[in-house]
Amino acid sequence: MHDYTHVIVSKSSPRPDRADINDSRRQYDCYIRLLSELNLETIEVEAGSSFPEAVVLEDIALVCHGIALLLKPKAGQEQLVKSVKQALENDLGQTVIELSDPDAMLLGSDVLFTGREFFVGICETSNEAGASAVAAAFPEFPCTPIKVTKGAQHLKKYITVAGPDILCVAASKEAKELLKRMEREASFSYQTLTVPEEEAANCLYVNGTLIHRAIEEIPQSFKVFCEKIDFSRRSICFSELSKISSGLSACCLLLRKPFTL
After folding, report:
1. What pTM was estimated for this model as a whole?
2. DSSP string covering 164-224, please?
3. Per the residue annotation, which of 154, 203, 212, 252 is the catalytic one?
């Protein structure tokens, strides 16, 4: 379920007059390079906006099993949405569906796909109508709305997939409450890996490899990953990019291109 052939990332031109974003640029370049090392073909799309905000792609679309649900763009993201849609349709053979319900609110950072089912965090940025749109777009998978505690952030800030049927969960009160609600409503059962630092909870599982934050950013959680994960791991610095996103999942769109004869 987490085997991918391609990754979409934002092509963002360097800004030599912005010395304050050099660290973000280096982290982003390392991020893209790491993904390409995991047998992914990289598709770069024109952002039409400035770095680093332009690299956050998970709120542009949800992509699963050849279907791409385009979400409502934020102001200034029209060019990015257009570029992503073109890449999905023309280059990658995905069937694109647009979020048409005027009442629907939905961000990709509020949507967790475990490989077996979807969970949608109901909060200020995603609502029940948005969850219904996910269910309609991907009818072969169960889709469960999960209420996020008031004042908490996006679902994938607290819980992500760390391996086959393994959920990586922050140790915070908000994360524990979310996990309880998910376990109560889930159609499948999962193992959980609890990490002490909240910023460690957002990781990526790609083609048999777990990608998580570097030891200097999450020293306690890094030890947990070393002790508990017995398959391939890679770590990366993400401190600057995490300031504008939910974490490692935010800056790419992972997908499998349909096989054609």
Report:
1. 0.94
2. TTEEEEESSHHHHHHHHHHHHH-SS--EEEEESSGGGS--EEETTEEEEE-TTT-HHHHHH
3. 154
